[in-house]
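Many introductory courses stop at the sequence. We go one step further.
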Amino acid sequence: MNSQLIVTLYPNAFGMGYVICETPKELINYGVARIRPLTKDKYIKRLYSFIKQYRPTLIILRDYDDTDNKISKRVITTIDAFKEEATKLDIPVYSYSRNQIKETFKQFGNSSKYGISKTIVSWYPELKRRMPDLRKNTKAEHYQMGVFDAFALMLTHHYLD
């Protein structure tokens, strides 16, 4: 089997969470890329820096065509732009919805964002220091949640593929 290098991108209100790996056990890099201003051009510039640095064989993105769609128009535009750029560069793109992520993690006992994050920390103890507290409805989502969203997306791909 040929080695793949996978870039998983999860745009959000802060920029985007990302995971770069060969397999779920072979992590290369991960984090939250802060993007300011939050414009399509800035996101595309960051995408190209990931492509130039890592030369991925595939890109994993969030899909937004399901019923659990709480996603801004800016993020939709960004995801569409990523797909368009990947197509131009002949890099395959896989997309998974929040529902697919929830269904994948439901079998491990968690389908909420916080529960999924706890499951991910149990598999990747190095992420424990990034683990946000349980969010109250009155609070904004924690900055580090982007890392967990990207990990959940990457793990869903490996589970479903």
